[in-house]
Amino acid sequence: MRDAPRSPVDPGDDPVPASASTPRRPADVWTVIRFLVCAFGLLSLAYWGYLAWPYPFPAVFFIVGAPLFAAVVWYLFRSPRSPIETDVVGKTVVETALVVAAGATWISLGHPVVGLVFVVVAAVSGVVAFRRETA
Predict the structure, then answer these.
(1) C-alpha of 27 from chain center
(2) Dihedral through CA 116, CA 119, CA 120, CA 122, nearest 10?
(3) How many CB atoms are located within 10 Å of the residue 102 CB?
(4) Which residue in 63, 95, 132, 133 could disulfide with 49, CB within 3.0 to 4.6 Å?
(5) Selected residue with higher pLDDT from 72 and 134
(6) pLDDT for 103-132, tens place per residue?
(7) pTM here?
């Protein structure tokens, strides 16, 4: 079949998809610690909502609402893929507020050691993450 229609693009000229050309960065110790700090912070807010409020109505609102609010604020202002461009100072303010809120939940529940250890670990992982982002 000599007169078969041909594609205007040669098969060798196909562009490579962006996801295939950018390999994923392997997870190191600091990335895992950072993930655990974020997960523990969200769980702390949910646990605070469970223990600090009477169960049926207000507790359910705070169990779901507090971590959801923190996750949305983190995504909008601190996430590497955030839709709102924020400078370094704004990112630091948002992250500090979220870490202090999660640490304050443990202090308000009567476990100040857990809150302080969480704040210190989150601060160290935040400094490491900041140094990596700006390097």
Answers:
(1) 15
(2) 150
(3) 26
(4) 63
(5) 72
(6) 999 999 999 999 999 999 999 999 998 888
(7) 0.77
Going by C-beta distance under 8 Å and a sequence separation of 6 or more, which residues neighbour residue 103?
44, 115, 116, 118, 119, 122
SS (H, E, C) 7-44: CCCCHHHCCCCHHHHCCCCCCCHHHHHHHHHHHHHHHH
Secondary structure of 69-122 as H, E, C letters: HHHHHHHHHCCCCCCCCCCHHHHHHHHHHHHHHHHHHHHHCCCHHHHHHHHHHH
CA distance 106 to 100: 10
Residue 35 tokens read as 């993930």
Q: How many domains does the chain have?
A: 1
Find the mean pLDDT for residues 30-36.
91
Is residue 15 domain-resident?
Answer: no
Q: Can you tell me the distance from the alpha carbon of 68 to that of 130, in angstroms, rounded to the nearest whole number?
A: 24
In a domain? residue 23: no
